[in-house]
Structure to design on (337 residues):
């Protein structure tokens, strides 16, 4: 409907407005009452309304022509060319009709009136049309830039997520390797857990997952790590039952837990907790470290990867605090759900 109005109705109505404006101005200047003349002359002049389609086509053609130019020229020159085309077309069509239908032929003020008014009206039409086209083009370019930026973001996120696989797999296979010498049954159980973890990492491609599912995955990872750790390890895991169906991006908690198992020593304990506080996921991991402190590498894949993913996925909606003391190491992560 909108296209029908713009293409078939508006050009005629716009031409009618121009025609009435010209006639009223002429009546004021000359005192000529065009509504009192023979109706046939008015009907003949009204055929000029059909030229509205020609003006619309011509101005749209000029607009498309200038938009196709690889290097747009000065705007003032464009407007001068458009004005010249309008004047030539107007003088070639309207003035001859005025000469035959006017009471005193075509006088000088008729030439000025019939040239100036259509030119101003149709130049205004072109300016508005050009402004709308520029806004639409700018909007489309902005959408394209956002799409490109989003594609780049998704590519980087996929790369960061993929980095977990070899890093995690290396540690898990080491566990299976050493368990084979001690107990084939235990190694078999570890492989089953490993299979569950890899299935989650490799085949769950959703943007976000339920936080309950993420915590279930984390529990499987903890079980896998527990099987390879010394039996003297004191492990405490506390999960808030309210954390269930809230959405969260996957694999953000794993690096902190992985880090704790990797560097646990000294009194040999690890504490892990997850709770829901005022709409925030609050995740805490702490572990004892050896008396001879093992420094956590600042540039390690896990934590640096995590910081980057958090910055991309939760800008301004997360907090990550790392504390490394002489006796323990702790990490606190808060994410707005």
């Amino acid at each position: 409907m909108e296209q029908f109005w713009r293409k078939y109705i508006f050009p005629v109505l716009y031409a009618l407005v121009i025609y009435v404006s010209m006639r009223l101005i002429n009546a004021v200047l000359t005192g000529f009452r065009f509504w009192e003349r023979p109706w046939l002359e008015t009907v003949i002049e009204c055929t000029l309304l059909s030229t509205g389609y020609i003006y619309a086509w011509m101005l749209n053609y000029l607009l498309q022509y200038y938009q196709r130019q690889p290097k747009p020229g000065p705007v003032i020159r464009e407007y001068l060319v458009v004005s010249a085309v309008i004047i030539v077309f107007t003088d070639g069509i309207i003035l001859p009709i005025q000469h035959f239908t006017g009471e005193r032929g075509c006088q000088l003020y008729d030439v000025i009136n019939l040239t100036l008014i259509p030119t101003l009206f149709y130049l205004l039409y072109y300016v508005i049309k050009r402004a709308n086209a520029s806004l639409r083009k700018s909007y489309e370019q902005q959408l394209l830039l956002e799409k490109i930026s989003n594609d780049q973001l998704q590519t980087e996120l996929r790369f960061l997520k993929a980095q977990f696989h070899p890093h995690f797999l290396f540690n898990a296979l080491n566990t299976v390797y050493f368990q084979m010498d001690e107990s084939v049954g235990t190694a078999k159980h570890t492989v089953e857990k490993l299979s569950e973890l890899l299935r989650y990492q490799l085949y769950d491609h959703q943007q976000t997952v339920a936080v309950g599912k993420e915590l279930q995955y984390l529990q499987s990872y903890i079980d896998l790590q527990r099987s390879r750790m010394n039996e003297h390890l004191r492990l405490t895991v506390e999960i808030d039952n309210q954390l269930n169906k809230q959405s969260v991006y996957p694999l953000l908690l794993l690096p902190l837990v992985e880090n704790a198992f990797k560097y646990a020593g000294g009194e040999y304990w690890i504490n892990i907790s997850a709770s829901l506080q005022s709409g925030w996921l609050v995740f805490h991991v702490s572990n004892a470290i050896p008396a001879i402190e093992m420094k956590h590498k600042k540039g390690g894949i896990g934590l640096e990867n995590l910081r980057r993913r958090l910055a991309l996925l939760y800008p301004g909606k997360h907090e990550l605090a790392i504390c490394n003391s002489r006796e323990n190491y702790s990490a606190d992560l808060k994410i707005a759900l």
User: Anything to note?
Assistant: The chain has a mean pLDDT of 80. The chain has two domains: 2-144, 183-336. The first strand starts at residue 209 and ends at 210.
